[in-house]
Amino acid sequence: MQYLAPTSVDSAIAALTDAAGQARILAGGTDLLVQMKSDMIAPEVLVDIKRIPGLREIAREAGGWRIGAAVSGAEFTEHADLCADWPGLAEAFDLIGSTQVQGRCTLAGNLCNASPAADSVPAMVAADAVARIVGPKGTRDVPVAEIPVAPGKTSLAPGEFVTSIFLPARAPRAADAYLRFIPRTEMDIAVASAGISLTLDDDGRCVAARVALGAVAPTVLLVEEAAAALIGTKLEAAALAALAQACESAATPIDDKRGTVAFRKQVVGVLARRAAEIAKTRAEERA
Ligand SMILES: Cc1cc2nc3c(=O)[nH]c(=O)nc-3n(C[C@H](O)[C@H](O)[C@H](O)COP(=O)(O)OP(=O)(O)OC[C@H]3O[C@@H](n4cnc5c(N)ncnc54)[C@H](O)[C@@H]3O)c2cc1C
Questions:
Q1: Does the beta carbon of 108 lie inside 6 Å of ligand 1?
Q2: Which end of the chain, N or C, is less packed with Cβ atoms under 10 Å?
Q3: Angle CA(128)–CA(230)–CA(176) in degrees, nearest 5?
Q4: CB 167 within 8 A of CB 250
Q5: How far apart are CA 229 and CA 54, in angstroms?
Q6: Quick check: CB of 142 below 6 Å from ligand 1?
Q7: DSSP 3-state assignment of 146?
Q8: pTM exceeding the 0.70 threshold for the entire prediction
Q9: Which domains does the chain have, with CATH numbers?
Q10: pLDDT digits (tens, 9 = 90+) for 167-217
Q11: Whose CA is nearest to atom 9 of ligand 1?
């Protein structure tokens, strides 16, 4: 196996396209190295992106934030201004693994590993995050929701990789929240999860919302009916009940020892309702 650590985007693309066998991007390695050690995959070439300038940076852009693809969970959650804008994504990212994992894991790695239970992905989809992808044919910006296409599979073409994640500008009374259910208290994979981002007007009425569910379908679900249940309301009990119902209806989970279909559907509705209440309180506090 060959380990390469290019210092430019172009040389990373070349390393991916020139590889004789399977080539994989190495970001934090917290999924990739585990999969290699357990013989699930055996890439010929590893392309470490951590030495590419800019990929470890968090920068302001167009009122929003550009997060380099090699920025770790710890670097993200220690950035006060970023976390003030996106507390829900920060709490989702912070749930990944332990302190050691936090020093390495990345948003793009969580996204491109394409697990249906990935914690940061529903929060990024709720945030309407956009991934910047580079490859042999140039650069393209793609909504995060369109990257995972099946468990373990992404829409990236051969030779392509993610260089950054863009989070859009926040309205003054906007906030997000993320909740997951796990049978243990930490270091476990979500049985169901919900990320919600919403914007309130000066009167406290919801004028925009995005609701994304994790671990209840092969890929993250963006549930427009759930968002519609909130928009135009002040998140009264009836609106929250309609939100929960829409999430239950949209969920198509698997049935396994960690949760039955009925359990996951019910729990995802409860999580969405609670996340909406948290996001609302945060939005009110930002005003
Ligand atoms: C002990 C432990 C606990 C964990 N707990 C959680 C948890 O609670 N929740 C959770 O969601 N995950 C968890 N994980 C999984 C993992 O930590 C996360 O998915 C993490 O975000 C992966 O990021 P990474 O940078 O380490 O990815 P890597 O392992 O480097 O890469 C993962 C995959 O994505 C590809 N890839 C990485 N970066 C890019 C890129 N920029 N462009 C294209 N492809 C790319 C790689 O080739 C690989 O296929 C845990 C892992 C461990 C070991």
A1: yes
A2: N
A3: 40
A4: no
A5: 40
A6: no
A7: helix
A8: yes
A9: 2-49+58-167 (3.30.465.10), 176-286 (3.30.390.50)
A10: 999 999 999 999 999 988 777 889 999 999 999 999 999 999 999 999 999
A11: 96
